[in-house]
UniProtKB/TrEMBL annotation, chain A:
The keyword Transit peptide does not apply. GO terms for molecular function: glutaminyl-tRNA synthase (glutamine-hydrolyzing) activity. The keyword NADP does not apply. It catalyses: L-glutamyl-tRNA(Gln) + L-glutamine + ATP + H2O = L-glutaminyl-tRNA(Gln) + L-glutamate + ADP + phosphate + H(+). This is Glutamyl-tRNA(Gln) amidotransferase subunit A. It comes from Candidatus Litorirhabdus singularis. HAMAP family: GatA (MF_00120). SUPFAM superfamilies: Amidase signature (AS) enzymes.
TrEMBL record, chain B:
It catalyses: L-aspartyl-tRNA(Asn) + L-glutamine + ATP + H2O = L-asparaginyl-tRNA(Asn) + L-glutamate + ADP + phosphate + 2 H(+); L-glutamyl-tRNA(Gln) + L-glutamine + ATP + H2O = L-glutaminyl-tRNA(Gln) + L-glutamate + ADP + phosphate + H(+). Belongs to the GatC family. Heterotrimer of A, B and C subunits. InterPro entries: Asp/Glu-ADT_sf_sub_c, GatC. The keyword Metal-binding does not apply. It comes from Candidatus Litorirhabdus singularis. Allows the formation of correctly charged Asn-tRNA(Asn) or Gln-tRNA(Gln) through the transamidation of misacylated Asp-tRNA(Asn) or Glu-tRNA(Gln) in organisms which lack either or both of asparaginyl-tRNA or glutaminyl-tRNA synthetases. The reaction takes place in the presence of glutamine and ATP through an activated phospho-Asp-tRNA(Asn) or phospho-Glu-tRNA(Gln). SUPFAM superfamilies: Glu-tRNAGln amidotransferase C subunit. It comes from the Bacteria. This is Aspartyl/glutamyl-tRNA(Asn/Gln) amidotransferase subunit C.
């Protein structure tokens, strides 16, 4: 049963091969079987899911079903779900059941998708390994000694293990693309402003963006079409007409200009990963694309710029957790100061505290120009690198990460080593561009991801470029043997 | 840039974060290594570069100045650790 694509499930429902109730129950059994080992789900909402599935079946019988009606999915536990715990991977929100749905949750429910639960994640999306979750680490289905990547590691592992055909994720510095790469699935971070941030717990508001994680580019296109769109309740949502992101999937790639950044290809890549990248580029040449060497000279400085801007915004956003209005509150506070300090001490984990402190430092009087303003100036230069490149190329292709998944605990004591793993993904968020990761081979038995970066609002083309590659390769069809699939 | 333990304690106080005395040395060295990495930024002259706050250089949208929200105080306060008569309760701050 497992490892259906979203498209397969959609077709099966339309053909009447199975009902939504049947396929949802199948996936719930798969979650029950795999979750004790993988820890990909924080909350499973089986009863509510089966009610929603029956109502999807009823609307299909009534002739009002769309392509996503009755298709099971899961939400990263950063998206507010009405009356269902939304923990954001933190003890701070362990008791939080929001009074409203995130716009993304409402939109996917309106499209008929059936949510089976909430997936594990790094605490407040701060991490690249899923080890900072209050609910314990997620394990990589390809090798359970390894991390799945982060912060959307639960969503990535759940899709990779066939526990769910598709899931939502969020990406502030690579949190959709990096776990997608490390778990061998497809994931898309849209252009900043494309997907509503309302009800998505804020980490770094000028960088955060939600997107789909699934088995193929086509699945991502189907899901993004239902997720994206202008939201008057999100002040940075862009006012553009709705799009069908599947519309260009089949377009031939003849004449496509692919930019290959030297800063990515000549970095310190794992050798097998580097050769997988070369093979992928050769595949694109066979598809009719022309490779163009490009330079993104400020790539290395994206790491320091990001680790000023993201913590600065995080320290501001997370100041709302005060033990007064919602979230964790310490027992028997002696005074207001004790209430704030002890509630935050008990509620936040070590990485979140570290970033709050770094952000507080960067925004301190006397340091603002040297850190925050400087980082914003670098951000402009990083954006200009991309704008210059897109004058000559249609899409930029390189690795998503320098290495495949590492062993649990291997980088836990060295925050900077962990941060440097995000070298190829951070600049895309700083610039606000759309980026995607798709499976492109293996290194030492672990999946590696190919990153595709597009120009602003060019998601339909990115999905087309990814889809054509998936028509001539089968990396995205491989599944981990540990959960009953076959590599 | 090196950072002293005393500075970390001051930041923690500003951010209302408590650091246990036995963790202070490890927290300080973790943050010092991050700030050391961040200092790479200073290698580049940027005085003529306009800072970028938003990737689309967007400005805030305006809307009509009319009431659009309905009262949901009960739903919101149901989330709170302690309330009374529609108010949020905190330890006494004035005598």
């Amino acid at each position: 049963m497992p490892f259906h694509s979203l498209k397969d499930v959609s077709s099966g429902l339309q053909a009447g091969t199975f009902s939504s109730e049947e396929i949802s129950a199948d996936y719930l059994r798969q979650i029950e079987a795999s979750n004790p080992e993988l820890n990909a789900f924080i909350t499973v909402t089986a009863d509510a899911a089966l009610i929603d599935a029956r109502s999807a079946d009823a609307s299909r019988a009534a002739g009002t079903a769309g392509p996503l009606t009755g298709v099971p999915m899961a939400h990263k536990d950063i998206f507010c779900t009405s009356d269902v715990r939304t923990s954001c991977g933190s003890r701070m929100l362990d008791n939080f059941a929001p009074p409203y749905n995130a716009t993304v949750v409402s939109k996917l429910a309106a499209a008929g998708m059936v949510s089976l639960g909430k997936t594990n994640m790094d605490e407040f999306a701060m991490g690249s390994s899923n080890e900072t979750s209050f609910y314990g680490p997620v394990r990589n289905p390809w090798n359970t000694d390894c991390i799945p990547g982060g912060s959307s590691g639960g969503s990535a592992a759940a899709v990779a293990a066939g526990m769910i055909p598709a899931a939502t994720g969020t990406d502030t510095g690579g949190s959709i693309r990096q776990p997608a790469a490390l778990c061998g699935i497809s994931g898309l971070k849209p252009t900043y402003g494309r997907v509503s941030r309302l009800g998505m717990v804020a980490f770094a508001s000028s960088l955060d963006q939600g997107g789909p994680m699934a088995r193929s580019a086509e699945d991502c296109a189907l899901m993004l079409t239902a997720m994206a769109g202008f939201d008057p309740l999100d002040s940075t949502s862009t006012q553009r007409p709705d799009e069908d992101f599947t519309r260009n999937l089949e377009q031939p790639l003849q004449g496509l200009r692919v930019g290959v950044p030297g800063e990515y290809m000549n970095a310190d890549l794992e050798p097998e990963l580097a050769s997988a990248m070369q093979q992928a580029l050769t595949e694109y040449e066979k598809l009719g694309a022309t490779l163009v060497d490009i330079s993104l000279p400020h790539t290395e400085l994206s790491v320091p710029a990001y680790y000023v801007i993201a913590p600065a915004e995080a320290s501001t956003n997370l100041s709302r957790f005060d033990g007064v209005r919602y979230g964790h509150r310490c027992e028997n506070p002696t005074d207001l100061h004790d209430l704030y300090t002890r509630s935050r001490d008990e509620g936040f984990g070590a990485e979140v505290k570290r970033r709050i402190l770094v952000g507080t430092y960067a925004l301190s009087a006397g340091y603002y120009d040297a850190y925050y303003r400087k980082a914003q100036q670098l951000r402009r230069l990083i954006q200009q690198d991309f704008i210059g490149a897109f004058e000559h190329v249609d899409v930029i292709i390189g690795p998503t990460t320098p290495h495949p998944a590492w062993k649990l605990g291997a980088k836990s004591d060295d925050p900077v080593a962990m941060y440097l793993e995000d070298l190829f993904t951070l600049s895309v968020n700083l610039a606000g561009l759309p980026g995607m990761s798709i499976p492109a081979g293996f290194s030492d038995g672990l999946p590696v991801g190919l990153q595709l970066i597009g120009n602003y609002f060019d998601e339909a083309r990115l999905l087309n470029v990814a889809h054509r590659y998936q028509q001539v390769t089968d990396w995205h069809l491989r599944t981990p043997t540990s959960t009953g699939g076959e590599q | 840039m090196s950072i002293e333990q005393a500075e970390i304690e001051k930041l923690a106080e500003l951010a209302r974060i408590r650091i246990a005395p036995e963790e202070l040395a490890a927290v300080t060295s973790g943050i010092a290594s991050i700030l050391g990495m961040v200092d790479q930024m200073q290698s580049l002259a940027t005085s003529d570069v306009e800072p970028m706050a938003n990737p689309l250089d967007a400005s805030q949208r305006l809307r009509e100045d009319v009431v659009t929200e309905v009262d949901q105080r009960e739903a919101f306060q149901a989330q709170a650790p302690a309330t009374q008569d529609g108010l949020y309760l905190v330890p006494k701050v004035i005598d």
